[in-house]
Amino acid sequence: MADARIPNPLVERFFKGGIPLDLRMMAAQGALPLTPADLVELLHHLLRDPESEVRSTASATMMAMPVEALLPILKDRLTLQGVLDWALSSRQEDQLLEAVLQNPSTSDVAIEERAAHLSMELAELVVINQVRLLRRNTLLDAIESNSRLNNDQRRRLRELRENFNIGTTPAVAVAPSPIVAPVVPEAPPPLAPVESEVDEPAPSTEQEAFFRYLTEEERQEAQRLTTVQKVFRLNVAQKVILALKGTREERTVLVRDPNRIVSTAVLGSPRLTESEVEIIAGMRNVSDEVLRVIGQHKGWTKRYNVALQLVKNPRTPLAISIGMVARLNPRDMKSVSVDRNVSEVIRNHAQRFVREKATGKRG
Fold it and tell me: How far does Cα 74 stand from its chain's mean position?
């Protein structure tokens, strides 16, 4: 089975709620510099936003996305089922519909709703997919009601019924209904309340910002001070944009921002490198949420040094770091076992591995 697609950390923050309206509107307009796959995922989420303007804007942005941008997303079986179902019900381009109909991640329900209205060529993709037809007999009913089917297609569907003894009477035709533009819920369910996204108050002066963002050594560097001055003057939405589009120096500062939306946006930047992730994993002045996101990212934690930094960082949530101790090589394991700067739980865990190694036992 293929691994699930690794979600963008910033998109995940949107899923959790608590995002300011101005930032949600920017996202709905497609203004955030995300990959097409991440943007589509986020826009689909915003179709259920509490604000009608956000919902309608997100819908319009999705409908305006060019075929060439959507096609590879709709072919990918790791794409969210909701996105595939939306495309099948809302877009009209044959290329896109063909991709969705052939994607095994598309729901049978969504195909059933569209089956009666497909062209003969697209209907063929449903007719030949016996797995879907056999597991959902109402889909078989729906495709049989399609007036555009040719005689050969009808024969094959009839033989399918006979061979598998599906039903004893001809399927009742489903009255076709007009295909309309994407329907945006008029009264979406309210989002679950979320905790404040701010771990601690934002700095109120530049001087406070210098101490919040920078270590003592970094405060001696003029370039770092200039970057902090720039960041200090920005609002949350502007910081998020800078986190996604800015320089490495700016990301290094913003990942320490007390607002989790901002710090997580750094991890969602398409410009972020694995070497930066390794450095961030070892920072003692980032939030535990940042370290948790890194620790849950399979691509990043495959790198030994990222795992090592997470284990050694006392701010890393224990649920993340304790599972990585066993991966350490003997030298690092011994070092962690006597390191007073790491969590006592991690240190004791490492000591157990060292003792077992010394006595010839297996961990």
Answer: 15
